[in-house]
Amino acid sequence: MRARGIGNYPFPNDDEGTYLAQAWAVRHGALAHYTYWYDHPPFGWTQLAALSWLPSWLLPDLPTFVQGRMAMLPVAGMTCVLVYVVGRRLGLVRPAAAGAVLLYALSPLAVVLHRQIYLDNFAVLWALAAFAFALSPRRHLWHHVSAGVAFALAVLSKETIAVLLPVLLVTLWQGSHPSTRKFSFAGFGSGFVLTGLFYPLYALLKGELWPGPGHVSLLGTLKFQLGGREGSGSPFTAGTDAHRLFADWLARDPYLLVGGAAAAVLALAVRGLRPAALAVLVLALVALRPGGYLPQMYIVQVLPFLALTLAGLVQAGTARLPGGPRLRLTAGVAAAAAVAAIAGPHWYQQDRSAVTADDNGVYRDASRWLRETPVGDRDQVRVVTDGVLWLDAVDAGYRPGTGVIWHYKLDQDPAVTRTLPHGWKDIDYVVSTPALRGERENLPTLRDLFAHGRPVATFGEGGGRIDILRIDGGR
Question: Can you give the pTM of this predicted structure?
Answer without folding.
Answer: 0.96
